Amino acid sequence: MKSLKDVYNLDFVESLTNAIKTEYPNYNRDVCHQLIFQRDWQDLALKKRMRRITEALYDTLPKDYPEALAILHRVDPSLKEGLSGLIFPDYVEQYGMNHWDQSMQALKEFTQYSTSEFAVRPFLLSNQEKMIAQLVTWSTDTNEHVRRLASEGARPRLPWGMTVPKLKENPYIVLPILENLKKDQSLYVRKSVANNLNDISKTHPDLVREIARKWYGDHEQTNWIVKHACRTLLKKGDKQVLAIFGYENDEAVKLDHFTCSNKVAIGEAIQFSFRIQATEDTKVRIEYAIDFVKARGNRNQKVFKITEMKLLHDQTKEYSKTHSFKNLSTRNHYQGIHTITIIINGTPKASLDFEVV
């Protein structure tokens, strides 16, 4: 199976250098290839391969940044798409810090093919006020990729992204960006806004609670953002956030007939089932949590959503579910006593132990 890093391969580099040669006849493709495909190439991870190509381009393109950037702008747009296209904003990040206007225009263009979300981070560190103002401007752009960049680039906890401490310390500075995007018609953009707010909820939950109360019910698109943004707080059973969405009356739901497998082997799945009954009309959020045994013998709980719905008085629902204990790249399983808990509207209702062998 191919690894993500393999988007940067010989075919891509040949296509890239051929395209540059077309735009810049004096370009030395052979030197660029030698700089890229050094002995350690196969061992380099995705971002290190990206940076190797970026540095090779710098060594073989004109040293005048605007001149080099103009050549990259003219390269075949298909080479700028997807993960492989990250080299273009990376070039701006590495060599364009002293050319603000040209770099902003380049990041705006390049993000429409791939993404410039990582490349804006050093600019935020260098001149936060100026970069935030630029992101606010981009948040009103007609292109959805540019609007998404405004939100994604300002995420406090951007995956794979350079840390910008002030975004974590003072998330209020990104709120004008999110306000502009809270009714965006693009799901691509709305996901980014929700992810930004979810990041904020991990350090400033009161701020996200305040935003959720203010925004929820305002607009269909906004409602979607708020619900997705509060997913971490909902999984934590945050009563204030649960109440915003109407999931506040756990006492109106009874749970019985809860059973689960006594034992499960790593690689297989446990089975569990239960029944709920409403004693009055109520909204219900049903989840289950598993306390997983970790490598050192300690346990860590993870919550999984089953469903959300409205139950009528005396209405019953039965559930039969499975949970896989197959090892994944993101999670290994370990032997020992685990616990499964059924959660109704944020409140644990019943728990059972089972053994993983």
Describe what you observe in this structure.
This protein has helices spanning 10-23, 29-36, 46-60, 65-74, 87-95, 100-110, 120-126, 128-138, 144-152, 165-169, 175-181, 187-201, 205-215, 220-229, 231-235, 239-244, and strands at 253-260, 263-264, 269-278, 282-293, 299-311, 316-324, 336-344, 347-356. It is α+β, with helices and mostly antiparallel strands. A five-stranded mixed beta sheet has the order 2-8-7-4-5, with no helix packed on it. A three-stranded antiparallel beta sheet has the order 1-3-6, with no helix packed on it. The longest helix is centred in the N-terminal third of the chain and has 15 residues, at 46-60. The protein is globular, with a radius of gyration of 25 Å.
Q: Concise description?
A:
The chain has 357 residues and is an alpha+beta fold. The protein folds into 3 domains: 1-116; 139-245, Alpha Horseshoe (Serine Threonine Protein Phosphatase 5, Tetratricopeptide repeat); 250-356, Immunoglobulins (Immunoglobulin-like), CATH 2.60.40.10. The protein has helices spanning 10-23, 29-36, 46-60, 65-74, 87-95, 100-110, 120-126, 128-138, 144-152, 165-169, 175-181, 187-201, 205-215, 220-229, 231-235, 239-244; strands at 253-260, 263-264, 269-278, 282-293, 299-311, 316-324, 336-344, 347-356.
